[in-house]
Amino acid sequence: MTSPAADPIAPIRARRTRRRRLEKWFGPRGAGVVEWVIVIVGAIVLALVVKLFLLQAFYIPSLSMYPTLHEGDRVLVNKLSYRLHDVNRGDVIVFERPASETSSNIPDLIKRVVGLPGESITFVDGSVYVDGSRLNESYLPDGTVTSSANAPNKCTVEAPCVVPKGQVWVMGDNRGDSKDSRYFGPIEQSSIVGRAFVTVWPLGRFGLL
Predict the structure, then answer these.
(1) If you write DSSP's letter for every residue of 17-75 in order, what string do you get?
(2) Is the peptide bond before 141 cis (omega within 30 degrees of 0)?
């Protein structure tokens, strides 16, 4: 005797049985409507689960991450990343806007992780130094200058910016046009929404980050 699991037409039989039951309760036309409602509700629930726990699309509202990200780009963010592993230097992350940034109505920001917990950040001759060593930022265009001249956090050799435990130092790739940790300081890791890993729109800019 063939078991239900091995029966290739078992799913078809199950659908027919379900359809007959719906037709008995709602009539032929009503059964079709109910089936569509079930499909639509199921799709909505699945989309909500994915958005809440797995992936979410984000719109890039400014040029602070240029040229890595352009204004108007859309990226996908993996919301599970940092439940599986630690935050890594160089990650592009989305995080909740710091409470001190009251001048913007944008709820989330996107920047790159530059400094990790316990590290000291300094700016010397237009470059970023971490624990006294010049950081290789190959993702930046040649000639990029990192300055803190107009920022509250100067991060000088005499007074380096130390990243506290449980926090990270973030900066935009467009160093001349980005309000980042130079202005609002390091951010709590608990405020990170997830890691941006792919640009999905416009299609001509589709690619991994």
Answers:
(1) HHHHHHHHHHHHHHHHHHHHHHHHHHHHHHHHHIIIIIEEEEE--SSTTTTTS-TT-EE
(2) no
Q: What is the torsional sign of CA 118, 115, 196, 185?
A: positive
Catalytic position from the list 62, 64, 81, 148: 64
pLDDT in tens, 118-165: 999 999 999 999 999 999 999 999 999 999 999 999 999 999 999 999
Domain ranges for the chain, please list them: 1-55, 60-208
* Domain 60-208 grouped into CATH 2.10.109.10: yes
pLDDT-derived band at 4 (thresholds 50, 70, 90) equals very low
Q: Could you give the residue ranges of the DSSP H alpha helices within the chain?
A: 10-49, 81-84, 181-184
The encoded tokens of residue 96 equal 């909740």
Q: What pLDDT shows up at residue 3?
A: 47
pTM of the model: 0.77
The active-site residue out of 62, 79, 81, 111 is 111
Half-sphere exposure of 171 (CA within 13 A, CB side): 25
Report how far residue 119's alpha carbon sits from residue 174's, in angstroms, rounded to the nearest whole number: 22
Determine whether 64 is an active site residue: yes
Give every CB contact of residue 2 below 8 A, 6+ residues apart in sequence: none
